[in-house]
Amino acid sequence: MSKYILPVSVFGTVFGCAVLLKNHVTGGPCPSKAKIPGKTVVITGANTGIGKETAKELAKRGGRIIMGCRDMEKCETAAKEIRGQTLNPHVYARHIDLASIKSIRQFAERVNQEEKHVDVLINNAGVMRCPAGKTEDGFDIQFGVNHLGHFLLTNLLLEKLKDSAPSRVVNLTSLAHIVGEIDFNDLNWDNKKFDTKRAYCQSKLANVLFTRELAQRLEGKSSSSVYVCGCSMWVDRFVLCLGSFVIFVLLGLYFILITVLLIVVVTGTGVTVNCLHPGVVATELGRHTGLHQSQFSSSVLSPFFTLLVKGPELGAQPSVYLAVAEELEGVTGCYYDVMMEKEPAPKALDQEVSRRLWEASARLMGLEQAPSAAVPASNGAQEKPSTDPDTKIIVKHPLSVLEQTGMNPGV
Asked: Residues with catalytic annotation?
């Protein structure tokens, strides 16, 4: 019997170390135990993979879950399964095709009409390194689904999110954004040879740029200065009346704390937006990558991938964390590698590129700010479009906007 002790001990030690290493590499479970009873969460691509596990976890935490999917049969099956496993009856399947402007608008209109509030929007759906193809409206399938579709959906739900503040937008991106390039001359690969890897990386860089630009626009209006000035004035008068240096110091520290809290609470619109790289996750998203299709890859490399690659349940934890963590209240415009905040690639920090991408995306999606985005000025020049986050949005068909501006759809 004793001869088996050493081998079993060695195996147990190795297995235990492997589990700990995998947990470290993959990020482990969401550290926040926050519940979200009564909160409404909209998740795209929720019938499989990370999206489905995210929906399940948030349903366990008491949320009202709106699952937006293209395949309604799979979506209904997934929703029924989640309702059964979590005993949460408030899990609903809704149709949305992110490759169709018409479908996105119909989905958003239904959500705006039926839901009293939207507390969290998780832009989860995506495609990866798929063959060359176009969306229903003529955009590159990866750029159209991964970026443009979510750009439009977010804008159409923005007023509902503001009305529900504090609310959150969570965008899923990828570490691949590091090598992405935004080609403003041909965003949709109309004039150059198609490269599926570069197209995917461009769309993921666009996710990060969109996140940062939206966060900046949502913080455009701030009443924090009013509170800061008010507190300072009150402190000064109080100190002058008491004439005590000790009380001055104590009250000063007290009001600094109050001011910081007020700034966090009242800055901007109350809508935060962050993005995340979920890590390397084994889902249907990678079906076009060709991974493990060779004998060498499947037999030799597979064990190492098993150690480093996580399943959908672990892959969903970063999305859950950004959606519910109380410590992230007021945090906006950030990029998370799994559940750790990090600085994105330098290209993703370029404010001029993020502004240009926003304007190009708005034109392609037929979003025009009201009043007219280009009003003739007295000197014959055109005024710069308003970036006021409270400006109402008029939706037009993108082709009509492009024809008016004389732009090539690839710009």
From this structure: 200
